[in-house]
Structure formats: C-alpha cells, structure tokens
Amino acid sequence: xxxxxxxxxxxxxxxxxxxxxxxxxxxxxxxxxxxxxxxxxxxxxxxxxxxxxxxxxxxxxxxxxxxxxxxxxxxxxxxxxxxxxxxxxxxxxxxxxxxxxxxxxxxxxxxxxxxxxxxxxxxxxxxxxxxxxxxxxxxxxxxxxxxxxxxxxxxxxxxxxxxxxxxxxxxxxxxxxxxxxxxxxxxxxxxxxxxxxxxxxxxxxxxxxxxxxxxxxxxxxxxxxxxxxxxxxxxxxxxxxxxxxxxxxxxxxxxxxxxxxxxxxxxxxxxxxxxxxxxxxxxxxxxxxxxxxxxxxxxxxxxxxxxxxx
Length: 310
Ligand SMILES: NC(=O)c1ccc[n+]([C@@H]2O[C@H](COP(=O)([O-])OP(=O)(O)OC[C@H]3O[C@@H](n4cnc5c(N)ncnc54)[C@H](OP(=O)(O)O)[C@@H]3O)[C@@H](O)[C@H]2O)c1
Fold this sequence. Notes:
By secondary structure, the protein is of the alpha/beta class.
C-alpha cells in the first residue's frame, strides 16, 4: 500500500459528493424543460445544508453553464466548497499548453483562482498520457489547481499517468469512473483495488445508474430521452435487485433504494457523486451517507447483481 499523500488526503475524507452534469444539460437531462435554474439552486442549497462539500462539474456540462451556475452560487455562500472540474481533450487542443489555457477558462466561469481537483475527462486516442500529464503539471505549478485527477482511464493508462506525475513529485489524486451496483467493471478488472493500493481516490459517477437504481423506472415506465433506449434490456432484469434493496433499506430504518445504492459504493471504498434535478432528489441522496450496510448485506447485493449480468 502506498501511503496517501498529504496533498490528496482531503479527497479520502469525503464520503459523498454532488455531480453537476444536470446543471444546464439539455441533451441527456432535459434542463430547461423538466427543471430549471431555481431547481438547481435548491439542489445546491439542500446539499450544503446536509453537509455536502464536494461538487463535480466539467467545462462541457451545459457548454459551460454548469461551471457558471456554480460560480454564481459560490458568490452567495460563505461555506467552503471543494471544486472539481474537467478538461475535455478535443482534437483541436491537444498541446501541453492547452490544459492551463482551458483551466483558465474554467476558473473564469467559476469565478475562482484555483480549483481543488482538475481532471482529464476522457483519455485521448491521439495524445499520450505523458503529454497530458505534463500539461497538468503546468496547471499545478501555476497554482490553478490543488490536485490532479483523471476520468475514464483504464489501469494501464492510469499507471502511466501516475508515473508521469510522480516524476514531478505530484500524486495522482483520483480516477473518476462509471461505478454502480449495475456497473461493476472497475471492481472486476482490478481498477478499484489498484486505486486503493496507490492511494488514488476512486470517484464513482452515475452511482444511481442514471436513476435506474432509485426504482422509479420499469419496462412499462422507462426513463425519458436517450436513457430509454440505453436501458431497455437492463430494465427488464432489475426487479429482484430493487426488491432486495428495499428489504435491506428497511433494516436501516427505511432507507430508500437510492440511499442503499450510494451506501453500497461507500462501503466499497468509492466516493459517489450522484446528480440531482431538484431539492427532493438531493435531500434523499444526501441520506446515502452517514451510516453503513453490513458486510453481509453488501455480499447479498453483490451476489444479486452478478445474477443480473449472467
Ligand atoms: N466523468 C464522466 O465521464 C462522467 C460521466 C457521467 C457522470 N459524471 C458525473 O457523475 C455525476 C452523477 O452521474 P449521473 O448524473 O450520470 O447519474 P446518477 O447520479 O446515477 O443519476 C442522476 C439522475 O438520476 C435521477 N435521480 C437522482 N436522484 C434521484 C432520487 N433521489 N430519486 C429519483 N431520481 C433521482 C435524476 O434523473 P431523472 O429524474 O431524470 O430520472 C438524476 O438526473 C454527474 O452529475 C457528473 O458530475 C461524470
């Protein structure tokens, strides 16, 4: 086990965060139609009131709107918030200098001088991990980010990023990946274990499997938009899992399926960042932390999800 570096220790102390993809995104989430800025403001306020201090955004969310909304809200609170944002490796900006320049854009939109975590949103098929990490080193040197993370990196790429940063004395803080009760690849392929071994915080995105794990969708009542097609097959199989989650939630004083799904990730050693479209969803999700499933319950849930994917 590598000892967790002092610079990135704060990430390991966070149990639960808040995702901000919903903040301005029309294509996947229907922002502006089924919910609006006022709802997002409520999500922010409720989350803060429940002790959430880590918010994950990206320059591409709502084409910058997510970062701008965050900036607006930050101005109106005196609570300390840990900010994570992301660089998207568009093919037209792949030099080492592209990263500090993109981060400047994010800092302007958020209205801060530095963020707590700057992540590469996706690995680039064109540019090496080494080149990207050199850009990240520049961002750290210029004081524009406190720590460096990656997202959607498999083990090989993750190790290359880790080694390049290590040559500059900078720890790799996190790898943000798709991880939920219904998507357990990172557990099966050893990424989670490798993260723990190297002191890299694994941040779990789509922890509610984009709403499926809340139990509100079924083959008869599929989610709207892109998700209906994406999840048509999976939806036919998840009823026994949802039932088990409800039963387990009852043993903890009536925790909901969403709360069980988030707690399962916490028990696995990941940091879930659920997205929410309104205060009610945010409040419910925040109740996913502050308690623990038993080892036996975690094992039962594991077994059930293995069955689904057989
Ligand atoms: N790095 C990456 O490539 C990447 C990719 C995806 C996401 N992310 C990050 O991870 C965050 C979370 O992932 P995600 O937004 O994809 O999915 P998620 O957190 O699994 O699901 C969020 C969606 O589920 C529904 N929902 C949330 N809480 C609910 C509740 N308590 N009750 C009922 N419905 C609820 C809402 O949609 P409906 O009401 O419409 O069902 C909400 O938009 C994002 O905001 C983003 O910050 C990163």
